[in-house]
Design a protein that fits this description.
Shape: elongated
Radius of gyration: 22 Å
Number of strands: 2
Number of domains: 2
Mean pLDDT: 80
Order of helices and strands: HHHHHHEEHHHHH
Number of helices: 11
Oligomer: single chain
Largest sheet: 2 strands, parallel
Helix content: 55-70%
Structural class: mainly alpha
């Protein structure tokens, strides 16, 4: 972040976010401390030592700046058009070692299950079981984007896989850039903040990212993440099958085939 970009951020946080200087701390120092924490993932104690402030003061001003950043939400974050699907946390008490497919399976089968709105579905990788609400790519067909760089899709299944991979790539790219810009999100250490504050930190990082893209874009950062995604050769695990899932699997097949056929017809037109 360049000095002019930093000064501009401080000004917008004062003007739009309601951030104010105090008797002992300027706006610039408050913002600098918050950005340092987000960008370096240091502890409150380390931040207090670096800025020569008390731990209580550092923590208080971090949350003050966090709230000011969140007030920029309407100005900087563009809401998606169309149907809004409320987010649900599948199971906040689980350890981070469980696979995504297992977490979703448990969320769908528990007493108060994850609800996927009728007619809507999630795009998921081949490690999940295909069902009406979870649409996986076709197995046995080309999938990774680099496989299509010189050879366009030859049939409906390949076209579906190409566009499926493109959607997943956009999501992975977003998280990849955020993790590189704000290491606090990518940290594997135990969080020092509660769940509510962790959610606010992610929102704040998204707002800051959009602000920076508008005034000081780091194209090298996007290129670095894109290169990592192109070279990603993770082997997908085979989903577990069961008689209980056969009906849902067939529904998922019908939905996927219908989408793939319509895509192919539009592609050929």
């Amino acid at each position: 972040m360049t000095p002019p970009t930093f000064i501009g951020l401080c000004e917008i946080l004062v003007r739009e976010g309601g951030l104010r200087p105090t008797l002992r701390t300027t706006v610039e120092e408050q913002v600098a401390k918050a950005l340092y924490l987000l960008a370096h993932n240091v502890t409150n104690r380390e931040l207090a030592f670096f800025f020569r402030r008390s731990g209580e003061s550092v923590s208080r001003y971090f949350h003050t700046v966090l709230r000011a950043i969140l007030r920029l939400y309407e100005k900087i974050i563009k809401q998606p058009d169309g149907f809004h699907v409320p987010s649900e946390i599948a199971s906040t008490g689980w350890e981070g070692t469980a696979s995504d497919s297992r977490i979703v399976k448990e969320a769908l089968n528990k007493q108060d299950p994850l609800r996927i709105p009728e007619g809507k579905y999630y795009i998921v990788d081949a490690g999940f079981m295909l069902r009406s609400g979870l649409i996986t790519p076709y197995r046995g067909e080309r999938y990774h984007l680099k496989e299509y760089s010189r050879n366009p899709p030859q049939n409906s299944r390949e076209l579906f896989n190409l566009r499926h991979a493109s959607l997943c790539n956009a999501i992975e790219r977003t998280f990849g850039v955020l993790k590189k810009r704000f290491p606090i999100i990518a940290s594997s250490t135990e969080p020092s903040y509660g769940v509510d504050t962790q959610k606010l930190i992610i929102f704040a990082c998204c707002i800051l990212h959009n602000y920076l893209r508008g005034v000081d874009p780091d194209d090298w950062l996007l290129a670095e993440v894109d290169a990592e995604l192109v070279n990603d050769t993770n082997v997908l695990e085979e989903p577990s099958n069961s008689k209980e899932s056969n009906e849902e699997f067939k529904k998922g097949e019908l939905i996927r085939d219908h989408i793939a056929t319509n895509m192919w017809l539009d592609y050929l037109a």
